[in-house]
Write a structure and sequence with these properties.
The protein is of the alpha/beta class and 298 residues long. It has 10 helices and 12 strands. Strand 1 and strand 2 form a beta hairpin. The radius of gyration is 19 Å and the shape is globular.
Length: 298
Amino acid sequence: MKYAVAIDIGGTNTRVALVNENLEITDRQQFSTNPENPGETLGKIADVIRNYGDKVVGVGMSCPGPLDLINGQILTPPNLRGDWQHLHVAQELSDRIGLPVYLNNDGNLAALAEAVIGEGKDYRFVQFLTVSTGIGAGFVIDKNIYQGAHGWANEVENTIMKQGGPCHGSILPGGIEGISSGTAITTRARKAGLDVKHAGEVNDLAKVGNETAQEIMTDAKVHLANFIAAIYNLTDPDIVILGGSVAIKVEGFVQEVEELVKSKVYEAQREFIKVRKSTLSEDSGLLGAAYLAFSKEK
């Protein structure tokens, strides 16, 4: 049986998994990422891959963005500094291990997993959105990631939905991530005086009648629905799959967003609106990375 290696380099930890042709993870390793020195982290990754032997056909890799997907290069992620920035990371690792390495972002790879073995496996045009710490996305056509002309397709977090709206970090004011992400929901609630730890607690307060919490949750859902309706008008996907902690853990979130989306498109479109909750685990990015490597080998 053939195997691929899937890598998820995060600002804090790096995960490496060995995945078979059935997209089953047969081994996984995790260690701290050196956020300043890529050589140390890439050396550890290379050691793990060498220990897997000659059964590995290729490597799929996810890194924090922004990324240059055309040239396999990390650009300027806030959590990876020093020599990480502008590093041609795919080529750097490939030179160390003698195997092809394919770089993509976590949203695209999660979308690919959804399209291959998740809720989108029976469809051609699969849109994925993660609603969690941030807002990420990926669009897959016939089991292939759509990257656009310069690799920036579905870098959606800065899409402006409200003039002069809320923001956080490097997100522009009114960007969808600054309104509908878990971080945005929690931050807005705290600024309004609510004692909450995460978006789920904001939703709990909304359910028991807290007007401030209700306003924040409604704003998040309405603007996310506006955004998804725009996606349907632009690319006409078969299905939109929502993942991430907010979509998966906040009761009724996905169903409410779907109904809102239906109210924001032409009546003739409504029968085609399909917004579903992800059924894959947090390993979706790793599984997508492995499938990417297998697909390039064919």
